[in-house]
Amino acid sequence: MYASREDIGYDFGDDSKVRSKPIKPNPNIDGGWAWMIVLSSFLVHILIMGSQMALGILNMEWLEEFNQSRGLTAWVSSLSMGITLIVGPFIGLFISMCGCRTTAIIGGILNALGWILSAYAANVHYLFLTFGVTAGIGSGMVYLPAVVMVGQYFQKRRALAQGLSTTGTGFGAFLMTALLKYLCTEFGWRNAMFIQGAISLNLCVCGALMRPLSPKDLCEKYVVKSDSEENQAKALSHSTETIKSNGVLGEEPEKKEEAANEEVLGSVQHTEIGGKSGSGRSMYGLRLFKTVSQLTVTVRKGFALWYSSYFGAASLFTNRVFVAFVIWALFAYSSFVIPFIHLPEIVKQYNLSRQDNVFPLTSIIAIVHIFGKVILGIISDLPCISTWNVFLMANFTLVTCILTLPLMQTYVGLAVVCALIGFSSGYFSLMPVVTEDLVGTKHLANAYGIIICANGISALFGPPFAGWIYDITQKYDFSFYIAGLLYMVGIIFLLIQPCIQKKQPREKSTEEAQV
């Protein structure tokens, strides 16, 4: 399922001397509870990403209700989408300290609160705070753990598992579009948001299903079972070796940290024993002190891992391909979300509302998006197929569709382009796989947090920019052209960086020379 390092321009030596001791695999890796994690992530994508893809319905309601410009009104949806992704690096800190389950449950409560408070909005600026910020942060606190947990529970079938879980975005866009249309028609947009807030409380249930793996179980993912699997596993992970040589993934800092932690807890236990023998000491106070000490150790350890990943001397940003990946993400996501926000308005301009009411174009994108994610995931899991190459081909197809969409002014033409957009955007299911290949499972939460943060910046400015261009030109054409060209710049970065890396022979570290 992996791309070889030659696929992205890396050379690698003979690793055949490196072997791991056989360990009995955990039945929950690639099976058992892992499929419950996929179900949980699937439901999260329905309730969060699916709802956001259906915001075009509410956007039209807000335009009529508050009578503001399209550019200003589009900021409500953009803030919600953008903040969901932008908070990724900070959610990585929460995950490092509290774990995925706790983070997701808190996020579910915040998301529901944002929807409910938005039902009482008096103006667009009120929606900025309640729906954009509050619901956006809550969505981010659930979304990142849902992606990370699937990456932790799967090794052999990661692309397929991520593909199945992220199909929830397509199902959600289809279901939520129909649901919000019905609720707005029957009860009005305010009551619709209140009902949606109640539905969003199910995110807490999804978070409760995210049972954490033990550190021992995580280690078992890296057992090398055969020479053939080793050859397949020589993927985009040159950066992992580079970071190891710089010390990010080294064991010495961890051992020092663990020794310090044990010393702190040991002193607390010694104090507790003394407290039992000493008269007049409160056992409750000692237990409280011990709990606070353990919490402090956990927070320090989580913060140290988070800080080293982002700001350490050998941070993730020392990986050039990963940096190129981040630059690509800065331009890519807006090209996908702009059609969802502005397609209802485009259909209205072309007098295609009758056909669109029968089968909405956004629903076409959503339905085909489901098949795109699953099919691309299955293809990427084939031993002879490079995940990296599948990812690039899907990107090329999507950017071509974005540049072509303004040329289509009939319902059939728009439907065909929307179907291609839906299928090619299925590469989203490959993003966690490519990220994990670059940095490893241990740093997946922080690394993917950076990627979705870059996507969030793209989503934050994309729709308002398109609305602003429309206010000036009274057309959406230039919005799609500019978004497509910026997207192409990001793809060029993905292509150029591996070529540069290939020309510069990788220096071997002292450890590699000794081996």
Q: Please, could you describe this protein's structure?
A:
The protein is mainly alpha-helical. It has two domains: 27-213, Growth Hormone, Chain: A, CATH 1.20.1250.20; 312-494, MFS general substrate transporter like domains (Growth Hormone, Chain: A), CATH 1.20.1250. The protein is built from 23 helices and no strands. The protein has helices spanning 34-53, 55-66, 70-86, 88-98, 100-118, 124-153, 158-187, 189-200, 202-208, 215-220, 227-232, 238-246, 252-277, 283-311, 320-349, 353-358, 361-381, 387-404, 411-424, 431-439, 444-473, 477-503, 510-514. Helix 4 (88-98) packs across helix 5 (100-118) and helix 18 packs antiparallel against helix 22. The two termini are 27 Å apart.
Topology (elements, then pairings):
Elements: H1 34-53, H2 55-66, H3 70-86, H4 88-98, H5 100-118, H6 124-153, H7 158-187, H8 189-200, H9 202-208, H10 215-220, H11 227-232, H12 238-246, H13 252-277, H14 283-311, H15 320-349, H16 353-358, H17 361-381, H18 387-404, H19 411-424, H20 431-439, H21 444-473, H22 477-503, H23 510-514
Helix pairs in contact: 1-6, 1-7, 1-9, 2-3, 2-7, 2-15, 3-6, 3-21, 4-5, 4-6, 4-14, 4-21, 5-6, 5-8, 5-9, 6-21, 7-8, 7-17, 13-14, 15-21, 15-22, 17-19, 18-19, 18-22, 20-21, 21-22
Main location: membrane
Subcellular location: Membrane
InterPro entries: MFS, MFS_dom, MFS_trans_sf, Proton-linked_MCT
